[in-house]
Write a structure and sequence with these properties.
This protein is an alpha/beta fold. The protein has 20 helices and 14 strands. The protein folds into three domains: about 350 residues, no CATH class; about 250 residues, 3-Layer(aba) Sandwich (Rossmann fold); about 35 residues, no CATH class.
């Protein structure tokens, strides 16, 4: 894989694209709690409840020859072979649909785990391979029979696998020959092992025959050798009938019967020697795929129990039930899907272009007092880290009931009635003079009550100094997640910003975790809230005033400053300690309030019943609330916000 291909894969494998595929799989399989994962391990499989896909499977997305041949076969324009991202979308969706159909129609765990003849690893490998072919053929036939608009993806998945797995001039049989020749060259065998090898070759030839017949009917079917011809004739109808058997409880019976007929071909291989013949499994997985789904073992996700749905098969993927080719037309669907893929591409490129932004001021730029004029104010708007998604989701799910409850209350509390005026009435509350010339006398207007939310922007300025370490920091994170989710739902402009000052350096730092016009992905930045250093509140508040003025057009602007102590910052020649720091912060607060921005202080106490921090901070803020139990921070903040909004609406 070349560098440019790796870049395309990186842009594709975003959380947004994973979620798109997960939502699609949930909808198709009707499993609302289904999870889907991206991996780069050259395999795709399902455990019946969750799906694993590999967008870069076999590096098909950058195999232009295989993609061109696939497009040619399906009669499609050259979109996939010329655009790696679009190819990745198609490949991933094809895998996703295939695994989703297994969830719908296949029993989990696989029936072969109950088969007593699978007690040896080699026998289990053969049983799994037979079942794999029958089950894959069936679920693709079921998809073609019972669902609209999945054939394009299923045929793409099947044909592209053929072209990427075999040489340009070759067939599946050629691929089979490659495997057997490779093994002959690499393994020096005894006479007994040579006999085992011979039988394995016959088994592979037999399976290859039926893989071609059932899954690749467009490939010329070679005549079976004399050594397997008898077994082909005895089992052909079983393969055909099993692959359209709509009852998942009976479908495995065909695997049993086939195994009975071909058992004389199956060599006795001890479990300790089975690793010598792992290429059998590799051979099957190359041509069929998702071997792990059928093995029932070594799953990286938890196994579940589920019954497959029955289906009535009216056709196969490429042919009717009599084997006649069906010429499916995909032009309209192709155009529709391509447009959606292009939208996803543009969004992914936009997300990939997000970078961490830095900029800088000095106290002088912020019109601060002399004690701050040369202090640097460094601003950081970090690039979101999707690796934090799991931690964020855990908090969200843990407090989902609380979030829903707060949202319900805010819907009632925050939305107030407003009057609007509707014109062109023949009678009403008043007359519009400009309409007095209306010959139909529609010069009356009516006052109509509607609903609205306050035009307000809130900036939460959170103390990130070292004293916030531990439980305070954890609760600040939880509160910020809940606040963000509630205010976002209510359509309220808000920003969440952490501030701190460096030890012994004239530097103040602000980390913008949530901006007023934040992207959905930015919410993961909340998990970056940390505790380290000092705090220089006066200068931070002056910067917050500048920021909220520049970034929000809301009529009402509010800064809520959350802190657990007095402003203190030790830096050579820039000392900032009480009582000087208290007086300076007080002056900054008054200046900001005179400029029309409301400021509310939130005092975080050390323990319940304590008012020490409140008594100190009330010297700075005219409006302040006391939080003497950190676990109640969220509730008190939301109550504060709701009261603020009610006041604005009154």
């Amino acid at each position: 894989m070349q560098k440019q291909d790796r870049e395309i894969l990186k842009i594709f494998q975003t959380e947004d694209n994973r979620k798109i595929e997960e939502d699609f799989a949930s909808m198709l399989s009707e499993h609302p709690n289904l999870r889907l994962f991206f991996i780069n391990e050259n395999q795709a499989y399902t455990d019946g409840k969750n799906i694993v896909v590999d967008p870069a499977n076999d590096e098909l997305f950058c195999d232009k020859i295989a993609l061109q041949k696939t497009e040619e076969f399906l009669g499609l324009p050259t979109s996939f072979s010329t655009d790696g991202f679009i190819a990745l979308k198609m490949i991933t969706r094809a895998q996703n649909i295939h695994e989703s159909l297994h969830i719908i129609y296949t029993n989990f765990p696989p029936e072969l785990l109950k088969d007593p003849r699978g007690k040896t690893k080699f026998n289990q490998m053969i049983l799994s391979s037979i079942s794999n072919v029958i089950e894959d053929c069936f679920i693709e036939a079921a998809g073609a029979s019972e669902f609209d608009n999945v054939n394009l993806f299923l045929t793409f998945g099947r044909i592209s696998r053929l072209f990427v797995a075999t040489p340009a001039k070759g067939t599946i049989q050629r691929k089979f020959e490659e495997f057997t020749k490779q093994e002959e060259q690499e393994i020096k065998l005894s006479e007994e092992e040579l006999e085992i090898q011979r039988k394995i070759g016959l088994i592979m030839e037999l399976i290859d025959y039926f893989v071609t017949m059932l899954l690749y009917p467009m490939v010329k079917l070679e005549e079976p050798s004399e050594d397997i011809n008898e077994y082909v004739e005895k089992t052909k109808e079983l393969w055909l009938e099993g692959s359209i058997c709509g009852d998942p409880d009976k479908r495995y019976e065909y695997t049993d019967k086939i195994f009975d007929f071909i058992e004389p071909l199956i060599p006795k291989v001890n479990d300790k020697d089975v690793e010598k013949y792992e290429y059998v499994k590799k051979f099957i997985s190359v041509l069929v795929g998702d071997e792990k789904t059928h093995s029932g073992k070594n799953m990286s996700i938890n196994q579940c129990e589920s019954k497959g749905r029955k289906a009535v098969i009216t056709r196969r993927l490429f042919t009717d039930l009599d084997g006649n080719k069906i010429d499916d037309k995909y032009s309209d669907q192709y155009i529709y899907e391509l447009e959606k893929f292009k939208e996803d591409k543009n969004q992914s490129i936009k997300v990939a272009s997000i970078t961490t932004k830095h900029w800088e001021y000095t106290g002088k730029d912020l019109k601060s007092s002399a004690m701050h004029k040369d202090v640097k104010v460094k601003i950081k708007y970090p690039k979101p880290d999707v690796n934090m998604k799991t931690a964020y989701d855990n908090i969200y799910n843990r407090y989902k009931l609380n979030i829903n409850s707060y949202n319900a209350k805010f819907t009632q509390l925050l939305k107030g009635t407003v009057d609007s005026k509707e014109s062109k009435y023949n009678f009403g509350n008043g007359i519009e003079s400009k309409r007095l010339g209306d010959i139909k006398k529609r010069y009356w207007y009516r006052n109509v009550q509607g609903i609205d939310v306050p035009d307000v922007a809130i900036l939460f300025l959170i103390d990130g100094s070292g004293s916030m370490y531990g439980e305070k920091n954890n609760n600040a994170i939880i509160s910020s997640v809940i606040l963000h989710e509630v205010l976002k739902k209510q359509g309220i402009e808000h920003a969440i910003i952490e501030h701190r000052a460096d030890y012994d350096l004239p530097i103040v730092k602000h980390n913008i975790l949530i901006d007023f016009n934040s992207r959905n992905i930015d919410k993961y930045n909340i998990l970056r809230l940390d505790a380290d250093g000092d705090n220089r509140d006066g200068l931070s508040l002056l910067w917050a005033e500048k920021y909220i003025k520049e970034r929000s057009q809301a009529e009402n602007k509010v800064i809520i400053s959350i802190s657990d102590g007095m402003p203190c910052h030790g830096a050579n020649n820039y000392e900032y300690f009480p009582p000087v720091s208290i007086k300076d912060t007080y002056n900054c607060v008054r200046k900001i309030e005179k400029d029309g921005i409301s400021i509310i202080g939130v005092a975080l106490e050390e323990e319940k019943g304590d008012t020490t921090i409140y008594d100190e901070i009330k010297e700075i803020y005219s409006r302040i609330i006391d939080v003497d139990d950190i676990k109640h921070l969220t509730t008190q903040l939301l109550n504060l916000v709701s009261k603020l909004f009610l006041k604005l609406l009154s």
